[in-house]
Design brief:
Blueprint (H helix, E strand, L loop, with lengths): L2 H9 L12 H4 L2 H15 L20 H11 L24 H119 L1
């Protein structure tokens, strides 16, 4: 047999499990332990690779290393680093009266602080003019996305319920047929056993009559 035939037979394997009909576990609790051992054994032999239809894991902020590092920090429960307040200060030269390089560094820092405050003022003005509308639009988009996801979730739940309902109806119908066939099989086995017992009794009666006939012939 070729490998393709073997794979075809493995792919077309038939599982006769009817969970909506079978109640063997309720009738025999020892079967539950046996089933759990078989499941654990089967899971231990499964490859680590996921099914091809399983989507790959989502990588958050793949194009933003700063946010990715922040997510890793949150996931590892690391404390938030202390805010660096030195750049918001205007320190003068450490020596007195101070060298030219120190005064130039202090002046450069002061200009940077002034530019920072100017940018903050510009950002505050832009936020006051356009921020509220931008947030309204953003919230509207989020609400629309949330509604679409809720709708998709409800549809998926309905599809799942419908599949389970069809499976239950099918298994219940097939289970009734199996019960009828099992009852008929039991009746046939009982009839066969009765016939076998009758045959044994007839064979004994025939043997008894044969002995009696031999005795009469001898007389």
């Amino acid at each position: 047999m070729s490998s393709e035939d073997s794979q075809t037979q493995q792919g077309s394997a038939i599982f006769d499990s009817l969970p909506y009909y079978d109640n063997d576990l309720e009738r025999d609790p020892s079967l539950k332990d046996k089933a759990e051992r078989l499941i654990a054994k089967e899971l231990g032999t499964q490859p680590e690779a996921l099914h091809p239809r399983v989507p790959p894991p989502i990588t958050s902020f793949a194009n933003n290393p700063l946010l990715a590092a922040e997510m890793e920090r949150i996931a590892s429960h690391q404390p938030f680093p202390a805010m660096d307040t030195l750049r918001y200060q205007l320190p003068g030269p450490t020596s007195s009266p101070g060298t030219q390089e120190e005064w130039e560094a202090a002046l450069k820092n002061a200009k940077a602080q002034l530019e920072h405050q100017r940018l903050r003022q510009s950002n505050i003005a832009l936020l006051q003019n356009y921020g509220s509308n931008a947030w309204r639009i953003h919230n509207y988009l989020l609400e629309a996305t949330s509604k679409n996801l809720d709708k998709a979730l409800e549809e998926l739940k309905e599809m799942t319920t419908e599949v389970n309902r069809d499976r239950k109806n099918f298994q219940t119908r097939i289970g009734s047929q199996l019960t009828s066939l099992e009852t008929r099989w039991t009746e046939l086995i009982s009839s066969v056993l009765q016939i076998d017992m009758a045959n044994v009794a007839l064979e004994g009666e025939i043997e008894r009559l044969s002995k009696k006939e031999a005795e009469l012939a001898a007389m």
